[in-house]
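Lecture 7, part B: from sequences to assemblies.

Below are the input chains for today's worked example.
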Amino acid sequence: MAQKAVELILMRQLASYLAVPIFLVDTDGNLLYYNEPAEHLLGRRYDETGEMPLAEWSTAFTPTAEDGRPIPREELALSIALQKWRPTHRALVIRGFDGVARRIAVTALPLEGQGRRRLGAVAIFWEEHVS
Amino acid sequence: MRLTLWGTRGSLAAAGPETVRYGGNTSCVEVRTADGSVLVLDAGTGVRRLGAVLQGGACRVDILLTHLHMDHIQGLGFFAPFFERDRAVHIWGPPSTTQALRERLTRYLSPPLFPVRLRELPCRLDLHDVPLEDFEIGPFRVSAALVCHPGPTVGYRITAGGASLAYLPDHEPALGLGRLPGAPDWISGLALAAGADVLVHDAQYSTVEYVDHVGWGHSAVTHALAFATVAGVRRLVTFHHDPDHDDDTLTRLLDEACAGAAFPFQLVPGTEGLSMDVGEPQRGFREGSLD
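Predicted structure of the full complex, as structure tokens:
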């Protein structure tokens, strides 16, 4: 198993202490980690899912736009952050592993480490309650 | 490949009768092969005495800095080969996203902190950002990787003649982890240390002290033991001793951390002046215990 870059290790450690949901992926978009607040929105503990390929997680939550249109993988905020290497924000609806649909807002940021190494991306997201 | 500890103290030099056994000089380790090739790991105050040994020699000197905290560079201005005309000296340091190594070192090696400027040194000085991948210096194969410590900090793995040394003098692999060890690929520095013949590792605090120093970039003795266990090293040399710990305290901390435990490696307290063959077991230390 390849050693994770220290910036990813520190990102995971920070995420594990934060109360906002955080989702961490590598440069290929594969899921590396999500924290406890994210577990609540995704409907499953990270210990149960573990690391997961992009192809799996990007469809597992059946992401849809607010008008109900399915969002293709390449239009997910994390995919855009990785492909265009810029911060991205969007709102969407996901269905968690627990089967519950939730409207969330996502801000994804590329992670660039020492020596300008591209390491992956992190998404901070939160549930939006329609008033 | 032979290893000699010229400075084992962390944070600040701590000279005095109460520290003569473990030593008071800050981080500096010499690595030497049978053909006389030399690597210097860090340039704390211990590098001054090493410089006297190297003075007058013809061989190129490579100094590998783990990071630029003062206790790892303070001896640079007193390193004799710097002042030898045409002596080849190379300094390797961790890359920064903002400033070149020369600019960062010049902050110290220039007035008012130091009377001699880096550019005024008579030696043939070359500075390099450490590649974060394998590279070679003479007979040494060097791996560098960023590790858990405030600011850009690398650990090193040095391999030569079939023997391997991992050097992580300032390292907090326990930071943020609920327990150490966790999943191996999420442990900072583990790939550098895996299976090494000798691991020189940060062991600055007691477990109680660590609680008040989380995030400072250092390890408790128990963390060093756990890290060495999961890394599967043959020998662990404790290093970067807290300047407030006298000789008796350091021995007591190691005794307490080892009480009733057996480790799959030989534990060697890092004492200034200690010299060992990296590929051979150290005599006088029992497997898995201190005495």
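Note for the exam: The interface with chain A takes residues 94-97, 129, 132, 145-148, 152, 175-177, 184-191 of chain B (CB under 8 Å). Keep this in mind when comparing with the next example.
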